[in-house]
Amino acid sequence: AMDVDGTVRALVGGIDYAKSQFNRAVTGRRQPGSAFKPFVYLAALEAGDSPWDIRDDVPVDINGYRPTNFGGKYYGTVTLADALAHSINTITVNLAQEVGMGNVIAAARRAGITSPLQPNASLALGTAEVTPLELTSAYATFANGGYRVTPYLVTEISIAGKPVYQRSEPRKERVIDEEVNRDLTAMMYGVVIGGTGGYASLHGREAAGKTGTTQDSHDAWFVGFTTDYVAAAWVGNDDSSPTRGVTGGTLPAYIWRDTMLAAEKGLPLKPLDK
Question: How far apart are CA 228 and CA 124, in angstroms?
Fold first, then answer.
């Protein structure tokens, strides 16, 4: 969890440090699944699409790659906003082909994804591994209105009262157009209000985010933000074995909700910029 400027406020790298010193939050690389989809929709908005543009949910076959929707559902004709809210795989994959995988990768890079990304069709559904820290940082770009952030944990180091290190404030760099970021935030708000992220709702406090679940529930995520904080919750096994049917909209959403309710306690209610 971090402030929207990249200040890390909380970081949990594992369940028990005595049993494992591996820091999953910083160095653990896992597939984000549908938590990667906002970068596809960012690229589409930048290409001129609107959240209210419509697409048909049709079967996909890209050189033998045939993704389907979770639970085998078929959604018919929907808006792009609803496609993201309900995490429709087929529309997202086709949308990525429309805007070009190179543009999707460029959008993710500008937001803050630094891990290797290959321009294959499955990238749209989050098959490239990332760390929780970099994914949270990329979402912080959405949360702060479109400015790239660099996460940090230390602001100053002193020895015997003498400062030996002082973090310098980086230059603010806008990487997402203000209007585009506002539209994307509204779409991600829809994920929480009426989509797969309903269990992350903060009881009257506005929040936006995205669920993510990989094949056979190897990984489950909820990544989201308010006007104050951005945070990611990931659930999975170290050996990448399947979990017991955990999806991003269940346990990770509950963890995220409880964490954010505690973090936001006593803070004034502020609407998202959407």
Answer: 28
